[in-house]
Amino acid sequence: MKIDLGGKAVVVTGGAGAIGRGIAIAMARAGASVVVNDIGVSLSGESGGGTPADSVVETIRAAGGKAVANSDSVSTWQGAHKVIAAALDNFGRIDAVINNAGTLQDRMFFRMSEEEWRSVIDVHLRGTFFISRGAAPHFKDQESGAFIHMTSTSGLIGNLGQANYSAAKLGVVALSKSIALDMERFNVRSNCIAPFAWSRMTNSLPTETEEQRERVARFQKMEADKIAPMAVFLASEQAKDVNAQVFAVRANEIMLMGQARPLRSVHTAEGWTPEAVAQHAIPALRPGFYPLHRSSDVISWDPV
């Protein structure tokens, strides 16, 4: 069975970075027409003075595919709607959006500034909403469409120095679930991918200690192009019954991630007092407590 995206148009935000580039090229290889969106700034949001999306478009066109570049910012309502308009103006339709644009402003929570908080939330969470909201009326009218959002185990599990990024990425999961619930009646689906890959995002990881250098070495084994097959599948008709799921992709490994469900419960007919909570409820619930793990503690084995 060959995945065929012929006749479909997709938007890939952050399409000039390592992961986005791989996804954009793979989408075009599968037959889709692609809007490669990238504003061409550094990881921290500074202007790079170029249009890196053009390079991806040239690569796609050289292989016989269809693509256009777009440099509007996903972090504003107007910019995001212009990104969607680029698909409609150039290809006459929109069938999938891949919310991949990202930025990092790592800082320990107790030192994080308002700007460091806002800039990351604006791109990851607000940007995901704005792009998705821009595509939603078209998906609704044609009664088809796929939302593919990039989350992170920093939000799903946890990480040091990333309160802004973790909050945004876990927010993306909740947003995806809400989109799935609201759009299911129109045959529109919404899923998340938590990618593990060496990219400009992970390129900023510190390497001051032996533990940090080992972590970076593990990441360097994870090729960014390995994320693309799952994204292409989720954009295809073969994924029509896959909705509201969270996948992690790590080298040649695909994981289905858990979602919040009750683990244990306690009940008393008389109602609870603070003392009864301390004496009875917490001891009964404590075996189900999660340790204060980071992502690397939970997914600790070498990539395959």
From TrEMBL:
SUPFAM superfamilies xref list: NAD(P)-binding Rossmann-fold domains
Pfam family name, one: adh_short
Occurrences of domain Ketoreductase (ranges): 8-201
InterPro entries: KR_dom, NAD(P)-bd_dom_sf, Peroxisomal_Beta-Oxidation, Sc_DH/Rdtase_CS, SDR_fam
Similarity section: Belongs to the short-chain dehydrogenases/reductases (SDR) family.
Name of the protein this chain belongs to: SDR family NAD(P)-dependent oxidoreductase
Species this protein is from: Ramlibacter albus
